[in-house]
Amino acid sequence: MNQPSTTAVRPGLLNESRALLRTTADDRGLVARPVLTPHLTARPIGSETVLLVSDTFSASLYGALYVRLSAVLDGSLTHDEIVDRLSGDFAPLKIKTALVTMASKGYLVSGEYAFDRAQAAFWSSLGASPRYVETRLASSPVCVAGDDDPAGMAAAMAELGVRTIDTSAEASVLVVPTRDYLDPQYREKFDDELREREALIAQR
Question: What one-character DSSP code corresponds to residue 89?
Answer without folding.
Answer: T
